[in-house]
Specification:
Elements lengths: L1 H4 L27 H11 L5 H9 L36 H10 L10 H21 L4 E8 L2 E6 L8 E4 L7 E3 L1 E2 L8 H17 L30 E2 L7
Antiparallel strand pairs: 1-2, 2-3, 3-4, 5-6
């Protein structure tokens, strides 16, 4: 990873060079076995093996796809209690249910008066919130893609250990990540190594003109956009409803 930081075009790699968010090809110190067990006790579930190995042998966050991996640190005395969200069953089928529910939003014209419409909408809205939150149950959010897009690692169920995208912000639910030319679900190691291979090609490529480096005139921090991460690293983006 240090070699990538010293590459002639390290800054063109997606998410490497962005004030306040860029990972700069730096990794956090690895966790000890005791620290990892403390994390898992707090989450209420054992993490998938490839991710556990990464935390123990590579780094506990930092350099990685998009804007890097979120830090993973053991809970401290001031850490709030875990919600148990990560240990719940992962139910990707809820994406289709949420989509159908959104199409069934009550319309005022279908009700005899405002009170009846308000009651129906309140019931619909409550169920919408339940489905929206339930979509990420059984997962751990490990990375931000910018613009409220996130990358999830499934921690429970048949899809345990695979990588999914949280694209609820644009109404597409939670969908599996796919690599170009490789059908099927993608594991954490495949996802990370695919990014690393792509990053190496980008950072060491001196045969093409690089894009202009982003310039910032203040230290104001804002959430990065997907466009600021200037390449998708070989990820095949799922179209809506394809999961």
């Amino acid at each position: 990873m240090l070699a990538l930081r010293n590459a002639p075009r390290w800054w063109v790699v997606s998410g490497a060079d962005f004030p306040g968010y860029g990972h700069n090809f730096e990794l956090l110190p690895v966790l000890t076995a005791d620290q990892l067990r403390a994390v898992e006790r707090w989450l209420g579930t054992e993490l998938p093996e490839e991710y556990r190995t990464f935390l123990l042998q590579v780094g506990a966050g930092g350099a990685g796809p998009d804007y890097g991996l979120f830090p993973m640190q053991p809970p401290g005395p001031d850490t709030p209690p875990a919600t148990g969200h990560c240990a719940l069953p992962f139910r990707p089928e809820l994406t289709a249910e949420l989509d159908a529910h959104e199409w069934a939003e009550p319309r005022r014209a279908d009700f005899p008066d405002d009170d009846a419409f308000a009651a129906a909408f309140a019931s619909w809205d409550a169920r919408h919130g339940e489905l929206y939150e339930a979509l990420s149950e059984g997962t751990l959010c490990i990375s931000s893609q910018g613009c409220a897009y996130y990358t999830l690692l499934v921690a429970t169920g048949p899809q345990r250990g695979t990588i999914w995208e949280d694209v609820r912000t644009v109404g597409e639910g939670v969908v599996p990540v796919e690599l170009r030319g490789k059908p099927g679900h993608v594991s954490f190691a495949e996802w990370y190594l695919n990014w690393l291979e792509h990053a190496e090609r980008r950072a060491w490529d001196t045969t093409t003109a690089p894009p202009p480096r982003l310039q910032f005139t203040s230290d104001r921090r804002q959430e990065p956009s997907r466009e600021a991460a200037n390449s998708d690293g070989g990820i095949a983006r799922q179209p809506p409803g394809s999961a």
